[in-house]
Specification:
Helices cover 66% and strands 2% of the residues. The longest helix is centred in the C-terminal third of the chain and has 26 residues. The N terminus is likely disordered. Helix 6 runs parallel beside helix 8 and helix 7 packs antiparallel against helix 8. A two-stranded parallel sheet has the order 1-2. The chain is mainly alpha-helical and 259 residues long.
C-alpha cells in the first residue's frame, strides 16, 4: 500500500519556514514497508509554470543543449556558456532558474545544471545572501531530499549526488549553530520512504568527508565531528531498519513466486 506524504505545495507556501518543513517531515515518518507516492518537485520561491515557457528560459534550455552536443561549433559553445554563466550574476535569477530547472520532465543534464546554480549560491555567494534567501535555500534543500528526485531505481546517480552536495554544502555553512535540527530532520526523512532514506544516508556519509576538505577553523570542525559522532548510533539504527525491511520485502516476493 502506498503512502501519500505532504504535497510540495505545502512545503512551498510563501510563509513556510524550516520549522514547518520539519513538522511536515516528522508527521510523515514511518517504517520502510511500502512505497511513498510523491509529486514532481515544486520548490519555494515560485511555481513550476511561472515563466517556464518564457523566451529566456527557452534560450537557457537551448544553451544547455548546445553545450552537451558534441558536434556544435566552438563559437556556439562559447555563446551558450556565456548565457549560462550570466545566470549566476544575479542571486535572485540564479535561485529562480535553479527552481525551474528541476522539473522531472527535463533531461538530467538540465536538472544537473539547476543543482549547479544552487551550489553556486551556497559556495560562492552565501555570505552575501540575505537571511531570508538563506532560509529559503535551506527549505529548498530539504524539499529536494523529500521529493526532488525520481524513484530510487529511476534517478541518475549523479543527480542524487549533486542533491546531496547541495545539502552538505549548506550544512558546512550553517550546521550545527544555525541549523541545529538538521540531523533530526534527516532521521525523519529516512522514515518517509526508500528514496528519502537513501538520500539521508548519503548526506550522513558525505558530511564527515566535507568536514575534512572544507576550510573550517579547528573549533568549527571539532564541533561538527562531535555532533556527527553523537548521532552515529541513530544512523546505524536506521541502516539496520532499512536492511531488515529490505530483507522482509524480498522474502515476501520469493514466497509469492513459489507455486
Amino acid at each position: 500500500m502506498g503512502c501519500t506524504g505532504p504535497t510540495l505545495q505545502q512545503l512551498s507556501l510563501p510563509g513556510c519556514s524550516s520549522r514547518q518543513v520539519r513538522h511536515l517531515l516528522h508527521s510523515q515518518s514511518r517504517l520502510l514497508t511500502g512505497v511513498t507516492t510523491r509529486s514532481p518537485v515544486t520548490l519555494r520561491g515560485g511555481t513550476q509554470d511561472a515563466e517556464v515557457g518564457g523566451t529566456k528560459f527557452q534560450n537557457l534550455l537551448l544553451a544547455l543543449e548546445i553545450l552537451h552536443n558534441p558536434v556544435e561549433t566552438k563559437a556556439r559553445r562559447d555563446e551558450a556558456l556565456s548565457l549560462c554563466e550570466g545566470i549566476k550574476q544575479s542571486d535572485f535569477e540564479c535561485k529562480h532558474y535553479a527552481e525551474k530547472l528541476m522539473l522531472f520532465s527535463l533531461p538530467d543534464p538540465v536538472r544537473h545544471f539547476g543543482l549547479q546554480l544552487y551550489e553556486h549560491l551556497i559556495s560562492v555567494r552565501w555570505k552575501q545572501l540575505s537571511s531570508a534567501m538563506r532560509e529559503e535555500l535551506k527549505v529548498n534543500a530539504m524539499t529536494l531530499l523529500y521529493n526532488g528526485t525520481k524513484g530510487i531505481q529511476d534517478e541518475s546517480n549523479y543527480i542524487k549526488g549533486k542533491v546531496v552536495q547541495v545539502v552538505v554544502k549548506i550544512a558546512i555553512q550553517e550546521w550545527p549553530r544555525n541549523w541545529p535540527n538538521l540531523l533530526s530532520d534527516l532521521h525523519a526523512l529516512a522514515n518517509v520512504g526508500e528514496t528519502q532514506c537513501e538520500l539521508a544516508v548519503m548526506v550522513w556519509r558525505a558530511l564527515p568527508e566535507e568536514f575534512m576538505l572544507s576550510p573550517l577553523t579547528i573549533v568549527e570542525r571539532n564541533q561538527m565531528i562531535q555532533a556527527w559522532r553523537a548521532d552515529l548510533e541513530r544512523v546505524l539504527s536506521v541502516l539496520r531498519q532499512l536492511l531488515v525491511a529490505s530483507f522482509c520485502r524480498r522474502s515476501l516476493v520469493r514466497k509469492s513466486l513459489v507455486p
